[in-house]
UniProtKB/TrEMBL annotation, chain A:
<keyword id="KW-0645">Protease</keyword>
<dbReference type="InterPro" id="IPR028090">
    <property type="entry name" value="JAB_dom_prok"/>
</dbReference>
<dbReference type="Pfam" id="PF14464">
    <property type="entry name" value="Prok-JAB"/>
</dbReference>
<dbReference type="InterPro" id="IPR000555">
    <property type="entry name" value="JAMM/MPN+_dom"/>
</dbReference>
<keyword id="KW-0479">Metal-binding</keyword>
<dbReference type="InterPro" id="IPR037518">
    <property type="entry name" value="MPN"/>
</dbReference>
<keyword id="KW-0862">Zinc</keyword>
<keyword id="KW-0378">Hydrolase</keyword>
<feature type="domain" description="MPN">
    <location>
        <begin position="2"/>
        <end position="126"/>
    </location>
</feature>
Automatic annotation (TrEMBL), chain B:
<dbReference type="Pfam" id="PF02597">
    <property type="entry name" value="ThiS"/>
</dbReference>
<dbReference type="InterPro" id="IPR003749">
    <property type="entry name" value="ThiS/MoaD-like"/>
</dbReference>
<dbReference type="InterPro" id="IPR012675">
    <property type="entry name" value="Beta-grasp_dom_sf"/>
</dbReference>
<dbReference type="InterPro" id="IPR052045">
    <property type="entry name" value="Sulfur_Carrier/Prot_Modifier"/>
</dbReference>
<dbReference type="InterPro" id="IPR016155">
    <property type="entry name" value="Mopterin_synth/thiamin_S_b"/>
</dbReference>
<protein>
    <submittedName>
        <fullName>MoaD/ThiS family protein</fullName>
    </submittedName>
</protein>
Length: 146, 90
C-alpha cells in the first residue's frame, strides 16, 4: 500500500497535466527505511517524449547525492502516460531498478492539460514482476501542526 | 589504484548488501574486471556486448564516464566511482 499526502498527490497530478502531451517524471524522497514519501522532486524528462521518459544522467547523480546526504531514498518513482492507461509498460518493467520504491503511474490520456480526473495508480516492480497496490491519500498533517 | 565504488540497491545482491566496495584498476574496464573477480555476476549488469549498458550510468568524480572515454576512462587513486541505474521507462 502507498500512503501519500494529499498535497504531494496533487503536485504529481499537476506536473503530469502541465507536461502533457510529453511524459512527466520525478520522485518523492523520504527518510531511509520509513516508507514515507515526503519530499517531491520534479525531474526534467530528458527524452522530452510522449512515449518515453529518462532522468538526465547529471541530474540523476545530483539527486541521489542529495538523498544520500539527507539519509533519504526514493520512496516513490512516478511518471505519466499520456495516451495509454496508468499501467507499467514493458519498458517500464524492464528498466525498473528501485526494488524498494512505489512506482506511481498517472495517465493524462482523458483530459490532457485540462481540469478533470486522472488515473493515479501504484505498483511494486521487482524482478520483472508487477504488483498493483492500494493508494491511500492522507491529509497533510505537517501543514496543520506547523 | 584502489578506489571506492558506490553500488546501487539493485546490485547489492552481488556485494553482500554492501553500499560501497573497494576495487582496483587503472581504467574503468580493469576496475570492472576487479569488481567481477570479487563479486561474480556484477560485470554482466554493467556491460553488454563489450560496452557499457545503455541504462546504467557510471560516474567518476561526478562525471558521467560516457564523457571520459567510456570503458577506457582512467582511474586514479582516491577517485570516487558511483554506479546508478537510469531512471527511465516508456
Amino acid at each position: 500500500m502507498l500512503s501519500i499526502y494529499q498535497a504531494t498527490y496533487d503536485a504529481i497530478v499537476a506536473h503530469a497535466k502541465r507536461d502533457h502531451p510529453d511524459e512527466a517524471c520525478g520522485i518523492v524522497a523520504g527518510p531511509e527505511g520509513s516508507d514515507r514519501p515526503e519530499r517531491l522532486v520534479e525531474m526534467v524528462n530528458a527524452a522530452g517524449s510522449p512515449t518515453f521518459y529518462e532522468f538526465d544522467s547529471t541530474e540523476l547523480l545530483a539527486l541521489y547525492k542529495e538523498m544520500w546526504a539527507r539519509d533519504e531514498e526514493p520512496v516513490v518513482v512516478y511518471h505519466s502516460h499520456t495516451a495509454t492507461e496508468a499501467y507499467p509498460s514493458r519498458t517500464d518493467i524492464e528498466l525498473a531498478s528501485e526494488p524498494g520504491a512505489h512506482y506511481v503511474l498517472v495517465s493524462t490520456r482523458e483530459h490532457g492539460n485540462n481540469e478533470g480526473p486522472v488515473e493515479f495508480r501504484s505498483y511494486r516492480i521487482i524482478d520483472g514482476e508487477v504488483t498493483e497496490e492500494d493508494v491511500v491519500v492522507a491529509p497533510d498533517l505537517r501543514s496543520s501542526t506547523a | 589504484m584502489t578506489v571506492e565504488v558506490r553500488i546501487p540497491t539493485i546490485l547489492r545482491t552481488y556485494t553482500g548488501g554492501e553500499k560501497a566496495v573497494s576495487a582496483a584498476g587503472s581504467s574503468l574496464s580493469s576496475l570492472i574486471d576487479d569488481l567481477e573477480a570479487n563479486h561474480p555476476g556484477i560485470k554482466g549488469r554493467l556491460i553488454e556486448a563489450g560496452d557499457l549498458r545503455r541504462f546504467v550510468n557510471i560516474y567518476v568524480n561526478d562525471e558521467d564516464v560516457r564523457f571520459l572515454g567510456g570503458l577506457e576512462a582512467p582511474i586514479s587513486d582516491g577517485d570516487q566511482v558511483v554506479v546508478l541505474p537510469a531512471v527511465a521507462g516508456g
